[in-house]
What we know:
Elements: H1 7-14, E1 17-28, E2 32-35, E3 42-50, E4 52-56, E5 63-67, E6 70-74, E7 80-83, E8 94-97, E9 102-105, E10 112-122, H2 126-133, E11 137-141, H3 152-168, H4 175-196, H5 204-208, H6 214-222, H7 230-236, H8 241-251, H9 256-271, H10 279-285, H11 291-302, H12 306-314
Parallel strand pairs: 1-9
Antiparallel strand pairs: 1-10, 2-7, 3-6, 3-10, 4-5, 4-7, 6-11, 8-9
Helix pairs in contact: 3-4, 7-8, 9-11
Amino acid sequence: MPPPLDWLSRLLSIITVQGQLEIRCAYGAPWQVVYEDSRPGEMPYHVVLRGTAVLETPGKGISHHLRAGDIVMVANGSGHVLHDGSGVTPMPAHVRDGLNLTFSENTGTGERLEMLCGRFVLAPPHDRFIRDYLPAHLIVQTSTRDDSTLTETSAQLNGLLALMRTESNANSLGGNAMLNALSAALFTLTLRMASESAEAPVGLLALAGHPRLAPALMAMFNEPARPWTLPELATLCNMSRATLVRHFQEKVGRSANDFLTSVRMALAANELKKPNLSTEVVAETVGYQSVAAFRRAFSQHMGMTPGDWRRLTLQK
């Protein structure tokens, strides 16, 4: 039997994330970039390499101030605006195609900005898992005012960003494949660093960053078919059942049973793509002794029956 995986490795063995680096921006203030709502399964990301930027979501009244080294993942794919914060009418951008990505530039003479923009692509229903358990805007800072406080992960991220910066500015053979591979690594390292932060947001990252809850997270990821009970999970975490319930609600915003069901359904969606596996076998694989109970849980979670999902995926 293979050894248990850490939670992030296990998550990425369940969901497949592809990265696409698309645009390298080089602007002088005033500037502005507008993103419409993304298509299902697409999660835009932005990396500020130089300068500063303001991130806003129209209609939400919330803004985030970004600086060099900041990484933004828009997990819910909602429309958003990035600008220099001056309020001055932005200079028009001019786009030119490079060998491996697009370059967007303007003739502004104010503070300079360099930024990489792309997207992560997840197949359904895994995009829903990410939307449910990550914040709408995940922002990670790889730089600090005191370099002595840099962690190993932030150093790794800075190294990755330096490589992406160099590769994006070169017309090298295989550059597009390289940039996309680096983008996929960016997804993993960004989640790792966010989970290590003392200010991890509510959701999966807050759960992963909570030392006392980590055993329950690992258990559900590595043995999702096991009929876990709240007392069993609480014992793993050396806390009472009531304390476990309270912490899950505070950190995740959902119950432990909800989270376990989400993991099971993500696995079931993968297994149902295999035409040689019956629904009965899939149900047992993800922890349901009753096919009827599995069909009911899958339909409630996915909005369609296991059979409908299988037919939909096999048609593609």
